Every structure is written in structure tokens, then in C-alpha cells.
TrEMBL record:
Region span, Disordered: 1-36
Stretches assigned to the Acyl-CoA oxidase/dehydrogenase middle domain: 104-177
Top-level taxonomic group: Bacteria
This protein's name: Acyl-CoA dehydrogenase family protein
A Pfam family of this chain: Acyl-CoA_dh_M
Listed SUPFAM superfamilies: Acyl-CoA dehydrogenase NM domain-like (SSF56645)
InterPro entries from the UniProt entry: Acyl-CoA_dehydrogenase, Acyl-CoA_Oxase/DH_mid-dom, Acyl-CoA_Oxase/DH_mid-dom_sf, AcylCoA_DH/oxidase_NM_dom_sf
Record's keyword annotation contains Oxidoreductase: yes
Source species: Corynebacterium xerosis
Keywords of this entry: Oxidoreductase
Residue stretches of biased makeup (Low complexity): 16-36
Length: 334
């Protein structure tokens, strides 16, 4: 990782779109980012922001690859994502379909095999490996799997929305595919890094809407567009606040990376605010530019569609309710 400074003087990563570029092929030499809590978490989050500002779908895939590396560093017994590999993190657990893990009939009984179908897998046909949750005695556990095994098949054909279509998100079937456990039965969800990663996703959402700033600036620069200038000012203020929030959250993580409860509250706060900022920015930009670019500019229309789908990873009022419950139970001021 090479440190640099972004155009507004904030420490960042050389080449803002570099994280996104790693998704196009599993390159011989990886682009690596500082790990959460390593003392340079702001650089990590701002690189994720820049990746989605360049291309929302590619940046989202890059975030998962970097998240997999962070998960392995935290609970993976020394393994890290290697050069020439590109990883997904497939951990959605809807009621069905279900992916099961069973003990393999090997000599020492330590191996595992995966059978079933995993939904909501991004990077189908592009990822070389994945961290996957699979059920063991009815409860999810995290496994690492090489997706190049012949027992792995997948399809994104059921995805009908133009938003995030380029992420190739779909269902993946596993037929007796070898896998390796990562951490203990509850380590994936109980670790502080789960919540640090949630802040990284919020940085991606915000990077996605930051890409709309340039669209709005072009409109506002034209003669006789005073209302567009007002919208531009509002968007600039919103994105500045968002950037300060991400940098502040990163500083808190670096100060105490091991406090899981603080990490959970922080992530819920950041994601709630980020979701609302994204909606606000999209509203400002849409009102300023009108229907023309949304109907006739493919890049603008794609970004609006991508952000609309991507930000729905936020659980909205359910997360706000959860945050309220946690704060009442804690009984302290923000």
C-alpha cells in the first residue's frame, strides 16, 4: 500500500480508483489496504470511498475482497488473500435456500464439504475464492472455499434490476466442495472487525453518491442555473460532513479496535447517517439535473440505479430501532 494525499488534503491511497481496478482480474500483485484498527484506518475507508466514486459496482466488489483479507487477518490463523486471488464474502442467511457443511470422510476427520445453495453471492464467475457461511447443526459457521472446484456452479440470471447488475450477484450451488473453517463457530459475527467492516461499506455508499457531485457541478456551472448552485452547495456540505464522519469513525477504531460493543454502536450510527446522506444527495442531484440525464446519460442513470440498490444493504428503521434499544440499555449520552 502506498500512502498519498487526496485533492482535499485528506490522507488517502495512491490512485483513487485502484481498489476498483483489482476486481477486473485477479492480478499477479494485489492492491492491499491498511487493516481496520492498524493505525491507518482512515486511509482504508477513504480508498473504499474512492473506489466506489470511480465505479460503484467495481468498488463494491473490491470492498468484499479487502474485507475477506481483513477477516482472515483477524480470525484466519495467519492466512491472507494471496496474489492472483480475488475473494467474495458470502454471508447472507435467509431462511432458504440453505448451504450445509458436513464433515468429510478423510483420515483425520478435520475436513469439511459444502452442499446446497448460497444466495446473494456477488462476483459470480469472477471470484476465485470466497468466505462463505454454511450451516453446521443448524447454525452458520464461516468457511474458506476455492471456487475453482468443479462442484461449484453459479448464475446471476435472476437479477432483474439494472442497479448493481455489474456485480454479477446470484445464487451459487455447491456439490461436495471442500472447505476450511475460519475461526470458531461464532467468531465471524462476534469479532469487532465485523462492525469495522460495516463502516467500510458505508464509506462505499458515500463514495457512490460522491460521484454524483461532478454531475451536479456540470449543471451548476452553466449560465442561469442558480437553483443548481444551491443544490451543489447542499451536496458539498453533506459530503464534507460524511467525510469527516468516516475519518472520525476511523480514528475511534484505531484508538480502541477491540471493543466490540463500541464498534457495533459506531457502525449503526455511521450506517444510519450515511444512508440518509445518500438519499439526500440523490434527491438534490435529481431535482437539479432534471429528467434528461436520468433518461439519456447512461453513466448518470447507472449510478443512480446502483446507489439505490446498494444502500438498501442498510436495514433502515430496523437498525435505528436497534440503535435506540442499545442506547437506552446503556443509559449514557452520545
Amino acid at each position: 500500500m502506498t500512502g498519498s494525499t487526496t485533492s482535499d488534503g485528506v490522507p488517502g491511497i495512491s490512485g483513487g480508483a485502484a481498489p476498483a481496478s483489482t476486481t477486473r482480474t485477479a492480478r499477479a500483485t494485489r492492491t492491499t489496504l491498511p487493516l481496520p484498527g492498524s493505525g491507518d484506518t482512515a486511509a482504508r475507508f477513504l480508498a473504499l470511498w474512492d473506489g466506489c466514486r470511480a465505479d460503484v459496482s467495481e468498488g463494491r466488489l473490491a470492498e468484499a475482497d479487502h474485507d475477506a483479507d481483513a477477516i482472515l487477518a483477524e480470525i484466519g490463523d495467519g492466512r491472507r488473500v494471496a496474489d492472483g486471488e480475488f475473494w467474495g464474502v458470502w454471508a447472507a442467511e435467509p431462511p432458504h435456500p440453505v448451504l450445509e457443511a458436513r464433515r468429510a470422510a478423510d483420515t483425520d476427520g478435520s475436513g469439511w464439504l459444502l452442499d446446497g445453495v448460497k444466495p446473494w453471492c456477488s462476483g459470480v464467475g469472477r471470484c476465485t475464492h470466497a468466505l462463505v457461511t454454511a450451516r453446521v447443526d443448524g447454525k452458520p459457521r464461516l468457511f474458506a472455499v476455492d471456487l475453482r472446484h468443479p462442484g461449484v456452479t453459479g448464475s446471476a440470471d435472476a437479477w432483474v434490476n439494472a442497479g448493481m447488475a455489474a456485480t454479477a450477484t446470484g445464487e451459487v450451488a455447491f456439490d461436495a466442495v471442500p472447505a476450511v473453517t475460519v475461526g470458531g463457530p461464532r467468531d465471524y459475527l462476534d469479532r469487532p472487525g465485523f462492525w469495522h467492516g460495516g463502516v467500510g461499506v458505508a464509506a462505499c455508499w458515500l463514495g457512490g453518491v460522491a460521484g454524483l457531485y461532478d454531475v451536479l457541478a456540470r449543471t451548476a456551472s452553466r449560465h442561469g442555473k442558480p437553483h443548481a448552485l444551491a443544490h451543489l452547495g447542499a451536496v458539498d456540505a453533506a459530503l464534507a460532513n460524511a467525510r469527516w464522519m468516516i475519518i472520525g469513525a476511523a480514528a475511534e477504531i484505531d484508538a480502541d479496535p477491540g471493543d466490540a460493543e463500541a464498534a457495533r454502536i459506531r457502525a449503526l450510527r455511521v450506517r444510519t447517517v450515511a444512508d440518509r446522506i445518500c438519499a439526500d444527495v440523490m434527491d438534490h442531484v435529481g431535482r437539479a439535473i432534471g429528467a434528461g440525464p436520468l433518461a439519456h446519460d447512461a453513466d448518470v442513470a447507472q449510478r443512480f440505479a446502483d446507489i439505490a440498490v446498494y444502500t438498501r444493504q442498510c436495514h433502515a428503521e430496523r437498525d435505528e430501532q436497534w440503535l435506540g434499544e442499545l442506547r437506552l440499555a446503556e443509559g449514557s449520552a452520545p
